[in-house]
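Researcher: I need the complex structure. Ligand is zinc ion. Inputs:
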Amino acid sequence: MVAVGLVVAGCGGEPVAQHTPVLDPIVTVGIPPSTSASSSPPPVATTTSTPPPVVIVLNPGHNGGNGGHPDEIARQVPAGAGKTKECDTTGTQTNAGYPEHAFTWDVTLRVRDALAIRGVTVVMTRENDTGVGPCVDERAAIANRSDAVAVVSIHADGSEAAGAHGFHVAYPLPALNEAQGEPSLRLATVLRDGLSKAGFAPANYIGQNGLDGRGDLAGLSLSEKPSVFVECGNMRDAAEAGVLGSEDGKQRYAIAIATALLTYIGR
Ligand code: ZN
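Model: Output:
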């Protein structure tokens, strides 16, 4: 099945969309020149212009139907650098059975809404949490076909190591094109800093200071845009699972990610 990117713009039916900067009319405020002698200062004109459209791709990891379609999910697809990889996986889950795909979908919707309010056009790589795929190469292709300035895949990890917890942001390493170099590392750094500032601890079991260069993630290796994976935490850690599974926790992750993305695009 051909996957179609779902475009959700700031005007996507959100009641708050009417307040988005992108919809603000161009406003020019001026004072007509005076014909009489006056001590008033010269007329000053201020112009408020619409910010240029900015596109961000959000890629919620996995999908709710993957588990029921093992053959479809196991087929090999291009993974970049001449390698192949499985189409996708089912993702992990908490020890209590809360699945990663549901977490990534929930958090991604929250990030999408927070960005849309600020006039960012969001492209999603899947439309719901009940389908199969799309495969990792198609997710990358959706982003590559877009005008995205940033591509953010949202996941949670499933490390069985005792005491392993904390978030990390994966970026492409080695960089296979210009977008995978400095812009991707900068995007990863801004997200890392945003999550830290929001009170989340960097991972104690992978990467360094919340950053992890990866050459084995197809979504990164295939990307022609600045692209990162946010692994919000370890679902197998009992304490962290409580945060990952809570409404408050998911909202905090989403706001931290959205705020960092707004910083990255200068808004
Ligand atoms: Zn995942």
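Model: Summary of the prediction. The chain has one domain: 54-264.
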